[in-house]
Amino acid sequence: MLELDSLTVSLDTRHWQFDERLETHGVYALLGRSGSGKSTLLNLIAGFMHPANGDIRWQGQSLLALEPAQRPVTSLFQQQNLFNHLTVRQNVGLGIDPGLKLTDKQIHAIQSVLDDVGLAGHESKLPGSLSGGEQQRVALARCLLRRRPLLLLDEPFSALDTITRQEMIALLKQLIDTYQPCVIMVTHDEADARALEAEVLRLTEGRISRSQ
After folding, report:
1. Per residue, what are the HEC states of 16-47?
2. What residue numbers bound the domain in which 211 lies?
């Protein structure tokens, strides 16, 4: 379970307090107006920001003392953060070894996750030769390879065209069913939440509320 316990943070004149309990294998869609704090909440969980007060616990353990790389979290953003001079296989491999000194077992795991996201046969291609949807599949494969139990998604498909976006949402749902992480996805589109069968969390006036 992910517990946000009286988690408070302030930026300029904006203030937030988060109190919530999310199930270990739950899927949650985080909705709210621009500036409502959606990305702020993801950054707190990931460790890119620090709260003024409160705690973040995963399975009963506080995460606050852990650096981002030590947390049981992986994140997927709108910008894929792919390296154009590295192949698809290498970009995915960065998720488990930044030096790319990969064992045969790790190379096999990379191939398996590329198969899962529909990129078999693309292993040696460079990102510049891929479509936007294919690049997001590479980024998603890198997230899945890390096998972290918390998956944070910050509008990862908003820049894609409608058909590609729908394909990626369907793929994500399939992968969630397979890998069973706790997923928090920031989105402006309630249709995305419905497609993922996600529980909707709304951010209003600095607090989380659950849709009835």
Report:
1. EEEEEEECCCCEEEEECCCCCCHHHHHHHHHC
2. 1-72+148-212
Burial bucket for residue 30 (CB in 10 Å: 0-12, 13-18, 19+)? buried
H helices within 17-161, ranges in order?
A: 38-46, 88-93, 104-116, 132-146
Question: Per residue, what are the HEC states of 168-196?
Answer: HHHHHHHHHHHHCCEEEEECCCHHHHHHC
The β-bridge partners of 22 are 2
This model's pTM is above 0.70:
yes
210 and 107 in a single domain? The answer is: no
The tens digit of pLDDT for each residue in 154-199 reads 887 887 788 888 888 888 888 888 888 999 999 888 888 888 889 9
The domain total for the chain is: 2
The predicted-structure confidence for 99-129, as pLDDT tens digits, reads as follows 888 888 888 999 988 988 889 899 999 999 9
- Residue 105 domain-assigned (yes or no): yes
